[in-house]
Structure formats: structure tokens, C-alpha cells
Write a structure and sequence with these properties.
Blueprint (H helix, E strand, L loop, with lengths): L2 E6 L13 E6 L9 E7 L14 E6 L4 E8 L4 E8 H4 L3 H13 L1 H23 L11 H5 L1
Length: 148
């Protein structure tokens, strides 16, 4: 089984100068995080403000023999760190659900790839706007997503 992590700012994924990134942990085989099984979340507070995509953290996960999933987030320049331990045995999909998740991953493989490509293109476009590379203000009324 695979684990995935989704990182976002508590108020909005493209918030300028986020200081508290939120990481959501999922299990599953689907390409889009939202299509997988949610296990838990962890946030690291008090990071120095920086533009989206410029603040870097190290995230590690370890699953022990007793079924505990430990997730650690470290911002190395400040040495701020957070740890969460999830009881994977309780939270994870059971054997029947795992087979169902694998089957859905096979069925929706092409559709998931198309969604992923579209989401990546939109994300890269938004980052370029934040950097000012398109000459478009990121504060346009309605936002970029609403106009696409």
C-alpha cells in the first residue's frame, strides 16, 4: 500500500507567505490525493514567511511492526519540528477495502492521469503568477481558478 501527503496552507493552498503549512496523510493507490483514504494531519507552526514554493521542510514517515505510522516534519533552517503518531491498524483500510482500492486504481488509471496533468498545469501556472512571470496580478477578483 502507498502513502501520500498533501501539503497546504490552512486558509488556502496558494496563500502568499504561509507560516503554518498543513500536511494531510493519505493511504491509497489513486493518483489524486482526494481519491485516497485519509489517515490524519500534521501542521508545523511558526515558520518564517516565504512565497509559495520557497519554504522547504523535510517530511519522513515510518511504519513500525505494531502498526503505528509516525510522521515527522522538520524545517531545518529553524529546527522547528512536529511529530504525529497514527494508529495505522485502526485507521487504515481493511483487507477488503484494499482490494477495492486497488481495483479502482486500475479502473480509473487513465482518468486519474488526465486529472493529475490538469491539476499540475494549473498549479504551475498559479506559481508562475505568484512569481510575476505572466504579468498577471495574483489578486485578480474571482481568482485564476474561477476564470478557467
Amino acid at each position: 500500500m502507498s502513502f501520500a501527503v498533501s501539503a497546504l496552507s490552512p486558509s488556502h493552498p496558494s496563500t502568499t507567505n504561509p507560516t503554518t503549512p498543513l500536511f494531510q496523510i493519505y493511504e491509497g493507490e489513486r493518483r489524486m490525493v482526494k481519491d485516497n483514504y485519509f489517515l490524519g494531519r500534521i501542521a508545523i507552526e511558526g515558520l518564517p514567511a516565504g512565497k509559495v514554493g520557497t519554504v522547504s521542510v523535510k517530511l519522513t514517515m515510518a511504519l513500525d511492526e505494531e502498526g503505528r505510522l509516525t510522521v515527522r516534519v522538520v524545517h531545518e533552517p529553524t529546527m522547528r519540528r512536529e511529530t504525529v503518531t497514527l494508529d495505522y491498524q485502526t485507521l487504515a483500510a481493511n483487507g477488503a477495502n484494499i482490494e477495492e482500492m486497488l481495483e479502482k486504481a486500475r479502473i480509473y488509471k487513465d482518468a486519474d492521469s488526465a486529472k493529475e496533468a490538469k491539476a499540475l498545469a494549473l498549479s504551475m501556472f498559479e506559481i508562475d503568477i505568484e512569481k510575476g512571470e505572466w504579468g498577471i496580478s495574483p489578486n485578480v477578483s474571482g481568482g485564476v481558478k474561477d476564470s478557467l
